[in-house]
Amino acid sequence: MLRRNHSATYKHILVSDSDTESDDSLNNVAVATDDQLATTFKSKQTLHPDALVELAKEYQKQMKKKAIPKYRINEVVVVNWKGLAKSMKRLYGQPLHYLTHKLCKEWDKSRFGSKDEEKPLNAIYDNWRDAEDTVWKVEEVHRLCTSPLHLAMLWLHDPEYHIIINEVISPPSSSIK
């Protein structure tokens, strides 16, 4: 159960009645890394929750600056939503929002066990651009409306969040302990 002792601000990431593992993660956020993808972090480094919120603010600020492309590319064959997101990033030369990546993963999971599970998105959508437009509309919402506090809370439980955000910003070295 959540309770609020003070007014909620960006510094109040989570207040809980229980002494669970998630409470322990508030003190320090362990960052697991892949040296090839995220050279700004090293294994076993931690970020203070306030630094994580500041990182989320900077990430969201940078993502808001990126314009959604007005032009569209020719059709590309993609099997799933995650593949579409990767293709869009490569073709348009800009990273997609952390939440867009998470949503594409969930959309792919929702296809497991369906009759169209193995069908490429191109075969499901009559017009391939409908799938691409869907991702761009979701991307615009994530870029313009996402709370940095919400991002920081998600990142507390995602040891690989840095792989996506390092494409946009690098964490300040002063916040790494």
Could you walk me through the main structural features you see in this protein, from its secondary elements to its overall organization?
The chain is mainly α and 177 residues long. The longest helix has 18 residues, at 128-145. The relative contact order is 0.20. It is globular. Helix 2 (49-65) crosses helix 7 (148-156). The protein has a two-stranded antiparallel sheet. The protein has a single domain, classed as Four Helix Bundle (Hemerythrin (Met), subunit A) (Up-down Bundle), CATH 1.20.120. The chain has eight helices and two strands. This is Protein RDM1.
Main attributes of the structure:
single chain; 177 residues; two-stranded antiparallel ribbon
What would you report as the Rg, rounded to the nearest angstrom?
18 Å
Mean pLDDT: 76
The structure class reads mainly alpha
DSSP summary, beta strand count: 2
| Neighbour order of strands in the largest sheet | 1-2
Q: Output the CATH homologous superfamily.
A: RDM1 protein domain
Residues in helix, %: 40-55%
Strand content: under 5%
Largest sheet: 2 strands, antiparallel
End-to-end separation? 30 Å
CATH class: Mainly Alpha
User: What is the name of the CATH topology?
Assistant: Four Helix Bundle (Hemerythrin (Met), subunit A)
User: In total, how many domains does the architecture comprise?
Assistant: 1
Query: What best-fitting shape do the alpha-carbon axes yield?
Result: globular
Per CATH, the architecture is Up-down Bundle
- Uncertain stretches: 6-44
How many helices? 8
- Give the helices and strands as they follow along the chain: HEEHHHHHHH
